[in-house]
Amino acid sequence: MKNFNPIRGTYDYLPKDAKIREQLRQKILASFQNNGYNLISTPIFEHLELLNSSDGGDNLKLMFKTIKRGDKLDLSRPNLTVADIVEEGLRYDLTVPLARFYANNRDKLPTPFKAIQIDNVFRAERPQKGRNRQFMQCDIDVFGDESINAELELLKTALDTYKKIGFNKLSLKINDRRILNQLVVFAGFKQDEISTVCVSLDKLDKISVTGVMMELIEKGMEAEKINKLVDILNDVLDNGLDCVCKYGVKSDDAENIKYLIKNLNALTDCIYDIKFDVSIVRGQGYYTGTVYEFYADGISSAIGGGGRYDKMVGVMTGVDTPAVGVSIGFERVALLIKENGEQDLKQSLALLYDKDDDILEVFKIKNSLMQKYDVSLYIRPKNMKNFYDKIAEVASCVVSVKDHKEGKEIKNLIKI
Amino acid sequence: MKNFNPIRGTYDYLPKDAKIREQLRQKILASFQNNGYNLISTPIFEHLELLNSSDGGDNLKLMFKTIKRGDKLDLSRPNLTVADIVEEGLRYDLTVPLARFYANNRDKLPTPFKAIQIDNVFRAERPQKGRNRQFMQCDIDVFGDESINAELELLKTALDTYKKIGFNKLSLKINDRRILNQLVVFAGFKQDEISTVCVSLDKLDKISVTGVMMELIEKGMEAEKINKLVDILNDVLDNGLDCVCKYGVKSDDAENIKYLIKNLNALTDCIYDIKFDVSIVRGQGYYTGTVYEFYADGISSAIGGGGRYDKMVGVMTGVDTPAVGVSIGFERVALLIKENGEQDLKQSLALLYDKDDDILEVFKIKNSLMQKYDVSLYIRPKNMKNFYDKIAEVASCVVSVKDHKEGKEIKNLIKI
């Protein structure tokens, strides 16, 4: 065996990266918990039937599946199909397992139930930068609360959390699928055209209004409707919620978003840029109400998002349950922190000892330093140059037992 | 779909359990880090070639495998074998991935390299109590240090860690495969019989000396050798390290263990029961030196263990690397803590509000309480009895906005 790379599309995390990721995970979790959400955990394996019944779109094609074992696997069977050899699937997101978890345990859970999940999911993406086949998702979801205060607590929690992990400047863009649907219908489109139109609208930020128009024409939509929709959208992009009612949007729907924005601003001392943005669609078909995305300064892709999906749990599990969630883009945030951030990681100290040092004294010194540092013993290496080259992956400073006893200072390792 | 149970052999963790497990994970990790080990992380997927070349024994039979995707999967092929449909395996332990990780990254890592891994592994065990198909392993390993001080730092770290998670009384039983091998050879067995004999000796605590004798006879070993071995073992069980040298054990090997025990006792103020125990074998074939197990008061199975495996990394990766590790039995420890332990979890408060409360005031109260509690908002439910029945899964105390404003005390929920 010569190839020791991790499996294509997956990654090993060396100590520096692993520490950043773990600290990020713990900070996010603590903030979610402090805001009143509850950690749960589900297995990576899921029933194929459930996964296939989910609104997973392309993710279903990217699903990892495990092979049947023992007598259950009969490869000599004629006209073998994939169904004959598959045992179960690996989850491609955390929402499907959460729906199953809730259907299975709702008798033991309060209403509403507010869940935290921070766990790996798996998709057989074509490997490329930023597309991992195993990646961390980081979700809070509320099941069983249809009021806008569910969104208010969720979004306040997300803003708190971003702040705790170092994002002080953020914009939060909020839309509502109900508003969008009404605008699309007002432009003349039929109910069953709404989702096709929304898929194109989702690309507004990438391909602009002209691009969306072209795409809708290609999809065979009528030019008149498209033109009307574009006029409406341009007006709403300029004038926001104040103009939507004249295009048939119920005033309750507009007031809902105003309530959310007003209270979020008040709860966060207006330090964030929080606004209605009709161009926020969120691709997934399952959203039924509010949708939102978080943007950091100077980065064009969202670093988090979510929305309300009041139908999904019912369709999938037969248990009608209003649901709303926020997801923090863990992998993207981890990369940003790695690239830009000063981390307040606890300092790691390499404590060098010599063969003839009294080992009990060595440990006594280690113990005393452990109050301030994470401390690791290293026998003084023969090749100090080589040692210094590599120790920075695991330690931020170094001192020898001898120097420490003589009162010499602990050396900080130059940041590489 | 009617069955919302998790996949057979796996578990959902509800908020109370998930919180205990997460706190345990964080405490163990913090202790490992403070003692100078470095968190790394590898994917759950591994190269089949690597897994199959590992000394995995039965675990290889229990391995989960994923199915090839797209054009790579050709089910119409004649004489189809498992190899034709398999893409990769899921790791069945953390040692195989660590060996690959080290072979792949050793140019970037210091020597010795001290790794922490706390992650899920997967085995298709026949589901029964305590046998999960997905379970957490919790390992520290040192690669590239053949000195006994590697064991000293490892075992000191493990004892520290058990203390931090609540185990104040522990016994640590230490043996050395080199000593065991020399005793077996002295009894007359041949080099190539050693491992067979050791497999039986591993059952000493379960089937006693007589049982081991019976088993060795069944395996076709000569009665004379067996009797001699039993005499030797009985003497060593009674008299410990002081008598091993008369059975051909090198004095260096005995001194090694004495050094370890003496210094561990000194470093832990003799509060633990740390002793040489010739009956500790550890089943795995790959151990080459020290082996050890941790036992908690009143529990017959080990709650952790490990040993030295100086050949494994070389055999598997071609990179000769002395290696030694300790594993804390996360799942067993989590169960014990759940059954017996008082946990010092941060208190969770359910804050009830009424529809006509000022929502900004509600959040202001929530924020002020978040300094002491994890706080979650709940609209005052219509059915208080039902609410109280279920809220205990997620909260340890409850108060309403109205009562709080009137200065009433926060109610602790009766422990269920």
Descriptive report:
Two copies of one chain form a homodimer. Chain A has 416 residues and is α/β, with parallel strands linked by helices. Chain A folds into two domains: 15-340, 2-Layer Sandwich (BirA Bifunctional Protein, domain 2), CATH 3.30.930.10; 348-412, no CATH class. Chain A is 41% helix and 19% strand. Chain A contains 16 helices and 15 strands. In chain A, strands 1-5-6-11-10-9-7-8 form an eight-stranded mixed sheet. A four-stranded mixed sheet of chain A has the order 13-12-14-15. In chain A, a hairpin with a 7-residue loop joins β9 (290-296) and β10. In chain A, α1 (15-34) packs antiparallel against α6 (148-164). The model of chain A has no long low-confidence stretch (mean pLDDT 92). At the A-B interface, α1, β1, β2, α2 and β3 of A face α1, β1, β2, α2 and β3 of B.
Give the overall shape of chain A, derived from the CA principal axes: globular
Could you tell me which chain pair has the largest interface and how many residues each side has?
A-B, 103 and 103 residues
CATH domain class name of the largest domain in chain A: Alpha Beta
Give the neighbour order of strands across the main sheet of chain A.
1-5-6-11-10-9-7-8
- Tally of helical runs of chain A: 16
State Rg of chain A.
Answer: 26 Å
- Main beta-sheet strand count, sense and barrel state of chain A: 8 strands, mixed
Specify the CATH architecture of the largest domain in chain A: 2-Layer Sandwich
Quaternary structure state of the chains depicted: homodimer
* Beta content of chain A: 15-25%
The counted number of beta strands of chain A is 15
Helix content estimate of chain A:
40-55%
CATH fold call of the largest domain in chain A = BirA Bifunctional Protein, domain 2
What is the count of distinct domains of chain A?
Answer: 2
Rounded mean pLDDT score of chain A = 92
The helix/strand class of chain A is alpha/beta
